[in-house]
Every structure is written in C-alpha cells, then in structure tokens.
Amino acid sequence: MTPIRRVLVLLAIVATAVLTGTGPAAQASFADSVRVSTSVATGTVAAPVIGPGSLTCGRSTATMALTWTKSTSARVSGYLVTVYFSDGYSQTEPLTTGTSWSKGITLYQVQAYAVRYTVTTQTEYGWTAESTSTGWFQC
Predict the structure, then answer these.
(1) Among 25, 53, 63, 72, whose Cα sits 20 to 30 Å from the Cα of 38?
(2) Closest by Cα among 116, 70, 127, 73 to 97
(3) Which domains, ranges and CATH numbers included, belong to the chain?
(4) Is the dihedral of CA 119, 122, 126, 131 positive or negative?
C-alpha cells in the first residue's frame, strides 16, 4: 500500500467512527437529601471579679497587691496580673493559679507614676478575658 493510500484509509476509518459515534455515553445520577439541624454556640470566657487592689508605701519600697474571685469558666489554667503605669507602660506578671497577688516595687516608680491593675483569665484552649481595672494608686 502506498503512503497516500494508507492516509486515505486511515481518514476514512476516523470519519466513519466520528459520524457513527461510539454509542450514547453512560449516564448515572444519584439524588438523596437529609435534613440536618445545626447550631453553633459562641463560647465566652468569664473574667475574674477583682477587689479594689492596694498600694502600701514604705520608706524605700512599696507593695502592690490585688485579690480576685476565680473565673466561672471551664478549664481555667491560671491568671495573669497586669500592672499599668500612668506613662503608658504595662508589665504582666507570671501566670498564677491563686486568687491573690502581691509584689514589691521601688518607691520611686510609684511616686513618679500612678499604677492600676487588671487580672486576665487564661484557659487551656487559649481563650482569655481581662477584668475591669482597679482605680489608680500612687505614693
């Protein structure tokens, strides 16, 4: 067979296959429905309720102190006490599991600046809630 003849035969076979088709395509469908009721609850973390706080001034040092009521939230891992200074600086104290905190501070720091405190609830799952702040204290 000559090359031209082979090409013509091949074209004839392809044309016949295209024109006649290979039969209808397989089709399938599936339909089903289910009613599902969904709801998403928004979780919250309860902030601790803090006491009035205090600042006791001595000759060269002062003592900052604060008490609070534990959070009612589940899986509380502890509480962070934050001291806010009137110049905008804040200092967070290490995590504690108790309901009271006190720390000494140089007298100069609380004579030059007023301080106030908050307590933040920390949970095992990473959520937090900060309490309202105390009033300002200064020696």
Answers:
(1) 72
(2) 70
(3) 49-130 (2.60.40.10)
(4) negative
